[in-house]
Write a structure and sequence with these properties.
Blueprint lengths: L4 E3 L5 E3 L3 E2 L5 H13 L4 E3 L7 H11 L7 E6 L6 H15 L6 E4 L13 H16 L6 E4 L3 H10 L6 E5 L7 H9 L3 E5 L11 H9 L4 H11 L2 E4 L5 H6 L9 H8 L7
Helix pairs in contact: 1-2, 2-3, 3-4, 4-5, 7-8
Length: 270
């Protein structure tokens, strides 16, 4: 693997591949997270909106690793905006997970999912101020955002004290969001890549398959390694043990030429 960890701008280290739990129902989350922990994942990503925090937390507790050896991320639901509302949602999350603190807490989106693109700048600022308080009080080791565009992040930079440590965005070969990536780099904001496999839609792409074969890798392994070599942190998700192991077993480096070819892959979501 290219690297084991990233270091955020506040000095906190984060394992370089996370185990994503989006779309894993609560009843399946316990087994999936247990399999991930058993196979060496120590970075687990969940959200209040996923409805699986309770079993994610139970799996972590039952696996019996020391708390400080598991990096846990959760997220403030996208529709919750405001100072006290954020403090209340955070308490709900740590109660669900059965932990005293989070390693990373994110604003899940700059707008409610059913109002995508609408302006909630003031609500985001108030939520961020609440997250700054939780961070300064030691309840969260790092804070960040998700699905934020440049203007959304700039509003926080202009009105708050703490630069987000992370922006978790959809990112995969062919959908690199170059302007946003460059802005985050400029401000030392780590980009986390969710849906690094384009929710599976890239696995049968002929270019991906051809390049993967060259490295004796699977398409999934190639796409995850691509994210790492773009200095982003991938969050692959699976409920199958074989794939969970495969997604973390990366024993090759993609050449510069092949990286360029991968950048040119057609965005499957266009």
């Amino acid at each position: 693997m290219t690297q084991d960890t990233f270091t955020m701008h506040n000095g906190v280290t984060i394992p370089a591949i996370g185990f994503g739990t989006w779309q894993i129902p609560n009843e399946e989350a316990y087994d999936s997270v247990t399999i991930a922990l058993k196979n060496g994942y120590t970075h687990i990503d969940t959200a209040l909106a996923y409805g699986n925090e309770e079993n994610v937390g139970k799996a972590i507790k039952d696996f019996d690793l020391p708390r400080e050896e598991v990096f846990i991320t959760s997220k403030l639901p996208a529709q919750i905006k405001g100072y006290q509302e954020t403090l209340d949602a955070f308490e709900e999350t740590i109660t669900n997970l059965g932990v005293d603190y989070l390693d990373l807490y994110l604003i899940h989106a700059p707008w409610p999912w059913d109002q995508k693109g609408t302006d909630h700048t003031e609500g985001n600022i108030q939520s961020w101020k609440a997250m700054e308080k939780l961070y300064n009080d030691g309840k969260i080791r790092s804070i960040g955002v998700s699905n934020f565009e440049i203007s959304d992040i700039q509003a926080l930079l202009d009105n708050c004290d703490t630069v987000p440590m992370v922006n978790q965005i959809v990112f995969y070969a062919g959908r690199d969001q170059e302007d946003l990536l460059a802005f985050c780099k400029e401000h030392n904001i780590l980009v986390e890549a969710y849906s690094p496999l384009a929710t599976g839609q890239l696995l049968d792409d002929p270019v991906i398959k051809e390049i993967a074969d060259k490295y004796e890798a699977t398409p999934a392994q190639l796409l995850i390694q691509y994210c790492l070599q773009r200095d982003t942190l991938p969050l692959p998700k699976s409920t199958h043990e074989e794939r969970i192991i495969e997604n973390k077993t990366l024993e090759f480096t993609i050449s510069d030429d092949d990286m360029e070819k991968l950048k040119q892959v057609e965005d499957v979501r266009n």
